[in-house]
Amino acid sequence: AALEEHNAKLPRLAEFILPAGSRAASLAHVCRTVARRAERAVVALGSAEALKDAPRQYLNRLSDLLFVLSRVLNRMNGGDDVYWKSERMAKAALP
Known about the structure:
Number of domains: 1
Number of strands: 2
CATH class: Mainly Alpha
Order of helices and strands: HEHHEH
CATH architecture: Up-down Bundle
Radius of gyration: 16 Å
Structural class: mainly alpha
Shape: globular
Strand content: under 5%
Number of helices: 4
Helix content: 55-70%
């Protein structure tokens, strides 16, 4: 419930967010990446052995939590999300 509350207070995502910003937010992004990697490893293991879904679900929610935490930490440090700008979008923005 707390995850959803914090996420609801953040601006809606319209673009891809880069794992950047404050040091704390950047470290949360690194932890999120590790959690996603672990989730993929559990999925791969599940294709070879019978596993309950709980470990994958836990890692997925952990990754979600770390993503929201990184966004909150950026704002707590007076910053904002760092958005990826594609070359196509940059050209479209030119006059």
